[in-house]
Amino acid sequence: MKIILTHEVSGLGTAGDVVDVKDGYARNYLVPRGFAIRWTKGGEQDVAQIRRGRKIREIATIEQANEVKGKLEGVKVSLAVRAGEAGRLFGSVTQADVASAIKAAGGPDVDKRRVELGAPIKTLGAHQVSVRLHADVVAKLGIEVVAA
Predict the structure, then answer these.
(1) Partners of 123 in the beta sheet?
(2) Do you know which Pfam families this protein is assigned to (predicted)?
(3) What is the pLDDT of residues 38-60, one digit of tens each?
(4) Which of 32, 56, 58, 115 has its CA 20 to 30 A from that of 86?
(5) CA 72 from chain center: how many Å?
(6) CB count, 10 Å around CB of 32?
């Protein structure tokens, strides 16, 4: 099935790309979650609009990505969450939580889909998070999860 991606999907493509995927993957995962729309001849106009929006939001050059990386790595991020007595969290820290904590700490605005958690963060303490700014630039960011 031919689809048009509306968001970046790792391993598949970025917003505005027209890709061919298996019918079940598109029907059951990509389209219901809003990551893609079905391809039509009229949809080609949507592709141009999606690409324009992506161009505005994305970091265009490696120099810009390295500049944002320097800003990110200089920010001390602390995230206050509810936790039990043993230091286990009620739930886990999400990508959106990390992105909003970076913004609150005075860092640059980061899209939550660019934040990569190695494994779910479910304990208090220091954790390492990656932020993929460009295809070739990844910022390593240390965050401190503290009890609220």
Answers:
(1) 88
(2) Ribosomal_L9_C, Ribosomal_L9_N
(3) 988 877 777 777 777 666 656 66
(4) 115
(5) 15
(6) 10
